[in-house]
């Protein structure tokens, strides 16, 4: 216990030192070298970012932009992962479903969601639909395969156990196949949420009037490095929060899968 | 008529056989197996290592088809798994995402038994196998022996007419295994059922059985049958016990030499 | 009987592919549910593909030139990223002090999707090969570091003790025990990184480029030639798949028997 807290202290000190050193190098680099012409120093960025949070950048505050992006991600992610998980589970359990959908899925999967941006704009115009379509696609592509492997690799004797207790096929699917695929599904959701986050940023960079992707894109157009860095920080923060939420949900849903202590 | 139907209750194997077809050719695992259980009898199928014992249990349970002969349960041909034949698995096969209570009440739940009723029923069997206090534990939190207790309670709670046990203690360490044999003896005495129990451990067979069917090695056929009428609980070092043990081990050795 | 069933499933796959193609053709070319300027029919797409092999319109280069340009940037950035990311990941996992100082910085960068750096790099490096290569480098490095780190961390303490018993030096333990243990994970990293790199490249080319597949599909959108967008997407998917197959083959060659899981 004491050993552990000492280790934590050392780690904390090291982390602070290294982050501080990084900021210092950044600051000194900007103050004393030619880098300063291109890059604002960390203090300028911090002040600028505070300005964006309390004030506005574009039409609204930085936080509102983040909320716009998050909202898109959540809607698209829910649609995409619901579709992906259902299809994946069916494909994993029933060979006929796999035979039918796998060839189509195999053509679509290797295309990165971002490559769908132009065609989604052609199809759905410039509003919210193409972005949500894109995010749904990112979530779909990443969850289907994992749900499929999960449903496929259910322990056969566990299924036999359910059968001998009297479960019919529908009950086996809902009470055995689905729960035992949950850890695998969460592995897919984990990748899916980061991919969806990257996709929303990309989509907003290509065509949007708000959102974090728009912030960095507009920053580039106006040659405003502070705005870009603020945007990047928010994007990082958003990504972190999303994966953190995902992990927490996973921890609860898969608590039977961890060795209990 | 009524009399005849009663006679047919339990499991009856008639010349049952199993041949697996693999890319390398045909592989005969079980040959010409014929036996019938009596009511509330503890029947042990005893045989060496990989002699197709699990296949026999799988066929009786309805997980696998026979390729020749017939297997009857209550006079009807076995076609698929049914709640009337409970199985305790060698690798335990609990539902890892369910608690002890969830596992034990599963059979009642999918049959639509009301929550309070099935909880009470499940609790009865959890208490019977000695797991009171572990109702809300997940299988990962239990030891091997405790997991198999859940497995036994789960099968029991479904109120099957016949219990099929496929080397249920095979994965346990020697000490736990011995304890579990005592436990099973106690549970079975408290809740009598017809049991078909498969093992490759002679001591376990002699300790538990009313009757032992000795199987030969692959393909499994019946070598010999013993009725064990030693008083229970049995003394592992009594004269009779040791004599029987020596005899059965002996015929098995000679059969392996053939 | 088993064989018959297998044939049945293959048939189902074939039927499904043919059905999709037929439905596509009928919806677009027979029923005209969508104009070909929005959703091109399969024949138009195939025709565009062959035409694009030798025509330069509307984006100034043939398909293969775009492809070569994309591949060049992707492989350059990828190679640099691997050369940097793999050793850093290994060192972080192997050496406590490197871990303590570098990981906090890494944890700050990791949640930011690679493509969010595009605007910043364009401002820093101008438009050309540099910003794209830098984005790909970063995406690749992050994926490599994560996987190498996890891989090395999987080394079993007992195996290291065996090394100690035989008097192995620290370097020997690293190269003979830890790295072979981590090899399957390292290869996973290389494949994940390839996916990330390819995605980052497409994003970069959508935003700022004068050639490459991403640029081609963006131009296809501007000039209302969705068939060209389709061809580009399929090409992007195909190349991504091909690179994954190559890496998978390489993995099997190098790490045979080691990724038993």
Which stretches of chain B are poorly predicted, pLDDT < 50 over at least 5 residues?
1-8
Residue-averaged pLDDT of chain A: 89
How much of the sequence of chain B is in beta strands?
15-25%
- What's the total helix number of chain A? 11
Structure description:
The complex is a heterotrimer of chains A (261), B (258) and C (261). Chain A is mostly helical and 261 residues long. Chain A has 2 domains: 1-39, no CATH class; 44-256, MetI-like (MetI-like fold, Orthogonal Bundle), CATH 1.10.3720. Helices cover 81% and strands 0% of the residues of chain A. Chain A is built from 11 helices and no strands. The relative contact order of chain A is 0.12. Chain B has a domain at 2-84 and 192-257: 3-Layer(aba) Sandwich (Rossmann fold). In chain B, helix 3 packs across helix 4 (115-128), helix 3 (100-110) runs parallel beside helix 5 (144-157) and helix 4 crosses helix 5 (144-157). Helix content of chain B is 38%, strand content 24%. Chain C is mainly alpha-helical. Helix content of chain C is 79%, strand content 0%. In chain C, helix 2 packs across helix 10, helix 3 (63-94) runs antiparallel to helix 8 and helix 7 crosses helix 8. Chain C starts with a helix and ends in a 7-residue tail after the last helix. The mean pLDDT of chain C is 86. At the A-C interface, helix 1, helix 5, helix 6, helix 9 and helix 10 of A face helix 1, helix 4, helix 5, helix 8 and helix 9 of C.
């Amino acid at each position: 216990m004491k050993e552990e807290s000492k280790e934590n202290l050392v780690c904390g000190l090291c982390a602070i030192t290294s982050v501080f050193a990084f900021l210092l190098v950044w600051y000194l680099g900007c103050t004393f070298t030619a880098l300063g012409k291109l890059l604002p120093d960390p203090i300028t960025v911090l002040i600028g970012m505070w300005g964006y949070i309390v004030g506005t950048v574009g039409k609204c505050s930085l936080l509102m932009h983040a909320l716009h992006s998050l909202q898109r991600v959540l809607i698209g992610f829910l649609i995409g992962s619901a579709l992906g998980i259902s299809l994946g589970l069916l494909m994993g359990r029933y060979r006929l479903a796999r035979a039918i959908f796998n060839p189509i899925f195999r053509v679509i999967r290797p295309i990165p969601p971002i490559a769908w941006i132009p065609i989604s704009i052609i199809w759905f115009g410039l509003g919210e639909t193409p972005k949500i379509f894109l995010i749904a696609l990112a979530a779909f592509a990443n969850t289907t395969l994992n749900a499929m492997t999960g449903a496929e690799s259910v322990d056969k004797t566990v299924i036999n156990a359910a059968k001998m207790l009297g479960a019919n096929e529908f009950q086996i699917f809902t009470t055995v196949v689905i729960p035992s695929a949950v850890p695998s599904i969460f592995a897919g959701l984990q990748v899916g949420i980061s991919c969806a986050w990257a996709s929303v940023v990309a989509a907003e960079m290509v065509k949007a009037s708000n959102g974090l992707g728009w912030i960095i894109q507009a920053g580039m157009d106006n040659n405003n490095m502070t705005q870009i860095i603020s945007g990047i920080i928010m994007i990082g923060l958003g990504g972190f929060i999303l994966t953190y939420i995902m992990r927490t949900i996973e921890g609860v849903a898969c608590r039977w899968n961890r060795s209990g202590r | 008529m009524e009399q005849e139907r009663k006679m047919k209750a339990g499991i009856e194997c008639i010349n049952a056989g199993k041949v697996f077809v693999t890319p390398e050719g045909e592989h005969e695992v079980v040959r010409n197996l014929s036996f019938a259980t009596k009511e509330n009898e503890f029947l042990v199928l005893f045989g060496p290592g990989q002699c197709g014992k699990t296949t026999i249990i799988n066929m009786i349970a309805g997980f696998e088809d026979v390729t020749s002969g017939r297997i009857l349960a209550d006079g009807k041909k076995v076609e698929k798994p049914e709640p009337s034949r409970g199985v305790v698995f060698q690798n335990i096969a609990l539902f890892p995402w369910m608690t002890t209570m969830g596992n034990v009440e599963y059979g009642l739940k999918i049959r639509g038994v009301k929550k309070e009723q099935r909880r009470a029923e499940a609790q009865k069997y959890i208490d019977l196998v000695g797991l009171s206090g572990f109702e809300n534990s997940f299988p990962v939190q239990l030891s091997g022996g405790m997991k198999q207790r859940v497995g036994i309670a789960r099968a029991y709670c479904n109120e099957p007419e016949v219990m099929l046990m496929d080397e249920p203690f095979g994965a346990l360490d020697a000490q736990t295994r011995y304890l579990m044999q005592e436990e099973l003896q106690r549970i079975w005495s408290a809740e009598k059922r017809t049991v078909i129990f498969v093992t490759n451990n002679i001591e376990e067979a002699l300790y538990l059985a009313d009757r032992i069917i000795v199987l030969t090695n692959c393909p499994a056929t019946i070598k010999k049958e013993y009725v064990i009428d030693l008083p229970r609980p049995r003394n592992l070092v009594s004269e009779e016990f040791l004599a029987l043990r020596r005899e059965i081990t002996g015929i098995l050795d000679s059969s392996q030499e053939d | 009987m088993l064989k018959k069933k297998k044939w049945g499933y293959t048939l189902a796959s074939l039927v499904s592919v043919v059905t999709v193609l037929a439905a596509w053709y009928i919806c677009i070319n027979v029923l005209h549910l969508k104009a070909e300027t929005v959703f091109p029919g399969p024949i138009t797409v195939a025709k565009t593909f062959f035409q694009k092999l030798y025509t330069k319109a509307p984006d100034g280069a043939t398909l293969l030139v775009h492809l070569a340009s994309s591949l060049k940037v992707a492989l350059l950035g990828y190679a640099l990223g691997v050369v940097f990311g793999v050793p850093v990941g290994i060192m972080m996992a192997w050496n406590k002090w490197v871990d303590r100082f570098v990981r906090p910085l890494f944890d700050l960068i990791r949640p930011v999707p690679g493509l969010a750096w595009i605007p910043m790099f364009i401002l820093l490096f101008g438009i050309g090969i540099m910003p794209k290569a830098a984005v790909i480098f970063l995406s690749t490095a992050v994926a490599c570091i994560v996987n190498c780190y996890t891989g090395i961390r999987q080394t079993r303490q007992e195996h290291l003790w065996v090394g100690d018993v035989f008097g192995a030096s620290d370097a020997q333990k690293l190269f003979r025990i830890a790295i072979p243990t981590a090899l399957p994970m390292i290869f996973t990293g290389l494949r994940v990184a390839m996916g990330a790199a390819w995605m980052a490249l497409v994003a970069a080319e959508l935003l700022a480029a004068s050639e490459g597949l991403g640029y081609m599909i963006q131009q296809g959108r501007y000039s209302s030639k969705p068939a060209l967008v389709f061809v580009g997407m399929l090409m992007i998917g195909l190349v991504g798949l091909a690179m994954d197959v190559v890496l998978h083959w390489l993995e099997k060659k190098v790490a045979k028997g080691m990724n038993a899981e």
